Amino acid sequence: MRKRLFQYFFRLEYLIASLLVMGMVQVLIVISDNLPEADETSFLNPILDRIDFLNIADVSLDAIFAVKDAEFPDEHIKIINVGQVAPTPDGMIAMAVRKLHTLGARVVGIDVIFDQLHFERFAEDRQYEVDALIAALEDVPNVVVVDGFDQNTMKPAFTLDERVLASQAQYGFANLVPDPDGVVRRFLPRATIEEEEWLSLPVKMLSIAEPEAIAPLLQLPADPQIIYYTGTYFQFESVPIEDVVFGTMYDDGYFNDAIVLVGFVNEGGLFYLGDTHKTPMGKKIGVEGPDMPGILIHANVINMLMKGNFISPIPAWADWLLVFLLAYISIAAYRVFRTKPGSRFQVGVLITSMMFTEAIIVFFLPLIAFFYFDLKISYNLMATAVLLFIPASAFTTRVRFWMLERKVEREFTASANPLPEVLTAAFRDEEAFPARVRLVHSGVVLTQFAWAFRAREARMAGRGWTADDLLPGVEAWKSVIPEITELCGGETARELEMRYFIRFLSGNKNEKLRDAAVRESYFTTELRGFNEFVSFEEWELMLPPMLQLWRGTLRQYLTCPLLAVASNGEISGLSGCSSSTVSAMHGLSEEPAPGLYSMQSGQSFAPIRLSPLCEWAECKLHRKHELFIFAGLLQKQHGVARVPAYFGPTPNCEPVFPPWTVPELKEMETSVISIERSPS
Question: What are residue 459's phi and psi, to 5 degrees?
Fold first, then answer.
């Protein structure tokens, strides 16, 4: 049982097909990464959108955060909404900074760009606000203002006002890292700008307020980190700056020991599109476009760092290992179970069921890894593998057929007769059923040729025809073919297997001699109730003993050169026959009778006339001369003369009999009948 399971599930072909799936996924990733840009009016746009789905982008996070329950953020994170942009209320920001310091805030981060352009927006009658802000930045410690850089050039994107730079305010860049689809799933903790290390706004604020929270992060490479989103504006409460500055409701410890973010959230419920971004949380709240202001993204990052909720992507090799395992298991299961259904429709149901089951696995495995282990597994790699495992399996099988065909052709190139062409034809059919028929046909043809050769040899030695010779089968083969006789007498596992295989060939031979059997079998390939994978499995099971028959048991008969003598005395050698053999035939003292001749290699030249058991005759199907092997005299109906049947290079070949064939077969039949009627 264990051996059978091993044979079912552990095959080199499955391994190669799985590696092919990985290669195809990698090719799709390369194509996706190098897709041309197409505008919305381009006819390529729908195509590129579909291909882009197969890239390595982490759209899996969207599904994860869409189903994940919202969490309450750390209570120390507070957000103040300035409520205005262009310009912002700098006077109230200045008062808020001073009041927050008085109320015990640990750090204040201001998500407003204080460059020269910002201050130029203020009219002269509001310049006092600018002066108040500069004074507050000079007087109050632990204030962080935003800076920024160009992510393409890695140079500063703007320069802060000189008065801000001269104050004791500290700086953190506010750059976000959107994915190619515009969704912000990552943040950049730090970056090297003009040989100076810059920290992001959340990291800079925590370096002041809670340094131990960012210590593990600073030990990692300066690569983008996945944001563990906690919530949206429903979870992060923001308070109007007017209430903080002029009210007293937040003076009773609300901001004590707080980490405060000051910036624009909304104005009367409206978002500022210049600083509103698309995040994975949008689907949770039913927003398809930009759904979260930048200040809330910074708040999610701070909360993530304070709670240590890092999402660790599994290493790339682990992602690819999962792809390999999924592809291998899918291919092995598909190859094992595809023969179980009884029709093509049921095979389609099986494939659909497998892909549906795997889609569920692909969906839930990353969710489980995220919820229980804070690990991120790529959906797209595994999902693409599910789509590609069947084409990869089919392609690998076709390549194996092609390699076997080439190997067989090379192996029997030196054959002295055209018999190997019958075997190589079994590898050329694209459909499984015809390939199976051809493979069985090749074994029957070789065995019948060996019987014909030995029967004519025995006839020359004085042996008479028997009833078994009229329809040769296992008994006739055992009686005249020494290799079959020896095989049937052994008891080793190999001999027992080959003995069973010989009987199988004999049974199939008799079945094919029924006129309509082959045609009806071919027609069944077009019927709905036919599963060609059954024939494919039979083909694979028959292949080892069939190759053993050709390579070992009956290989010596491939060394027998064949020569055809026409009615006019013209002698020609069949494929593989050497010119010296043809010359030796011409040199005989007596002119040979018309028919097909052969000889054993290594013996003195004494040609054996194989006709009428083997004939070089014109094929009605192919309209050319081909080798035909006697299959038997068929009694189709009682009282009607027996009809000769021959096997050609293909199951459908039918010969045009030479003039001597039918009379000689009649003489053979008469001889057998006379022996049967004679008294014992």
Answer: -65, -40
